[in-house]
Amino acid sequence: MGQGQHALGQVAQLARSELVSEAAAQAGRDPLRRDMIAGAVISFLLIVATFVVFMVGLRQINDARDAQESLDQANRYVQATLRGVGELILAEGATAQVKALLASIKAGDDALNNLSKRLPGEAAEQHFNSKIAPAWLNMRERLTPLAAQRGINAGAADVMTFYGKLLSNAETFEADFAVINQAIVE
Q1: What is the Cα gyration radius of the chain?
Q2: CA distance 146 to 88
Q3: What is the C-alpha end-to-end distance of the chain, expressed in Å?
Q4: Model pTM greater than 0.70?
Q5: Backbone φ and ψ of 163, nearest 5°
Q6: Residues of 128-141 as b/e, b for ≥16 C-beta within 10 angstroms?
Q7: Sign of CA pseudo-dihedral 85, 86, 88, 92
Q8: What is the rounded average pLDDT of the residues 151-156?
Q9: Which SS3 state, helix, strand or coil, does residue 118 take?
Q10: Which residues contact 29 (CB under 8 A, 6 or more apart)?
Q11: Contact 103, 85 (CB under 8 A)
């Protein structure tokens, strides 16, 4: 019986050692599994964060592009309006030039309104509202009566003085548009 018990004891000890090593192996696998899951979650979160940063950056680039396009369009229509005044004076108030000037003024209104919605920041908005918008309104107010006149005398001193003042406004617009452009670029 001694040998039977001894053999039984050895089997029990062997079974215990196998259970202990299996438990140790299981315990070793669980932390590894947890670490793998944690690594996968962290990797996923990094990918999501990278995607969010990319999307925010892409939106900022698109907003800046839209603002730049609006600024370019506003500048073109202000210049077209000034050219329209020159053509109106040279054509001495011809109907076609009056229509073209009025169309340029309307397009300028639309372009400046569009630009005002796309300005990049408070400083650009303040500059637009304090400089560009009032200058445009002033120019429009002065151009509307001119467009209504018939028989404009291109050689008249008052007409040329009026046109000279408008052209000096063009330089002011250029400087003000440059300030807005700088805000967009930054």
Answers
A1: 39
A2: 9
A3: 94
A4: no
A5: -65, -40
A6: beebbbebbeebee
A7: positive
A8: 78
A9: coil
A10: none
A11: no
What whole-number distance in Å separates Cα of residue 94 and Cα of residue 91?
5
- What is the rounded CA–CA span in Å between residue 39 and residue 127? 50
How many C-beta atoms lie closer than 10 Å to residue 3's C-beta? 7
Question: Taking a C-beta distance cutoff of 8 angstroms, is the pair 127, 179 a contact?
Answer: yes
Q: What would the two tokens of residue 76 be?
A: 């073109």
- Average pLDDT, rounded, for the chain: 82
Q: How far is CA 70 from CA 2, 57, 78, 104, in A?
A: 100, 20, 12, 15
Summarised one tens digit per residue, pLDDT across range 115-124 is 999 888 888 8
d(C-alpha 67, C-alpha 116), whole Å: 9
> What span, in angstroms and rounded, lies between the C-alpha atoms of 53 and 82?
43
Confidence of residue 20 (pLDDT cuts 50, 70, 90): low
Task: Yes or no: say if 74 and 181 are a contact pair by the CB < 8 Å rule.
Answer: no
- Would you state the pLDDT for residue 107? 93
Residue 153: φ, ψ to 5°: -95, 105
CB 68 within 8 A of CB 181: yes
